[in-house]
Amino acid sequence: MLLLAALGCSSSAEPSEKRSPGAQAGSTKGCGPPAFEELRGRAPSYVPRRLDRFPNDHAMCAGQWVLADRSFVPQSLAVGRRTAWVSGYDGGGPRGTRLCRVVRVDLRSGRVLEQAAPISGSVGARPEVNCRHGGGLARTTEGLWLAEGQRLWLLDPGSLDVLRVWSLADPLRGSFAVADRQGRIGLGEFKFERVGRLDWFDTAALLTGTTVDLTSADAVDRQRVPPMAQGAVVADLGAGPAAVWFVTSNTRCGVLVGPRGQRLGYLPGAEGTVLRRGELWTVSESTSRPYYEKGDRPVVPMLARFDLSAAHRWARAGCTP
Asked: How do strand 263-266 and strand 270-276 relate by DSSP bridges?
């Protein structure tokens, strides 16, 4: 019940008139979409006070802003009972300055409880380095796993202190991360037009081992990743059984790609996604300041919660990232 109360939901909210490309009419019953005024957290000052429509937004029960008036670009998340951890980077500067930031927020009030930036540490006895991009985040019993292009970090979920750091040898990439029920963590590779890879690692083996350089040989499994994949989640979205669904997107379009090639309409700019107690949580970068101020981006929550009770009836995607 605490989870259902988080990020409050209203079925009486009046949807906004403007719709994103490919949006469906709001005739499908569901818990949303919420009104702009119902979102938690401090709203961005640079957007109109209304949300844009997108396919299957009737299932978006609620949303939240995360450091919206700053240059923070959300990339991934993990969700607990009353709090969420959101990773991303501080944008607006040259590519080499996109340093990681991890924010812990209260899901009931939208208040920021804790944040860490920059995040720095050493791989073994090597010189200290900063985390960049923060494209993947996953929580297991061992802690909070933060993935970037060439490194994997383990953080303490409470203090956000760095516990350990590993380097990722080619062709491994930490563009995004996903955890499964077997205690594994998957590190995914982003590709614009080509198929990428998702390498799975046993988290217990990572912590008991002495290596600080992860290679393909350390992976316990591997699978293909569709182009433009920004995140992944292990879930049953009405097609059963539970399997890896990939989140493919750009800042104007979002698509959930299923294990049999299914393509469902989803939140524009969607990236990291996680399943918790039958609900799908995701972050979007579309309304982050660095992207929105480029122009022609939809206004959507930076953190959103979706009901999956009727996911088997979700509409197919009307756009391609």
From this structure: unpaired
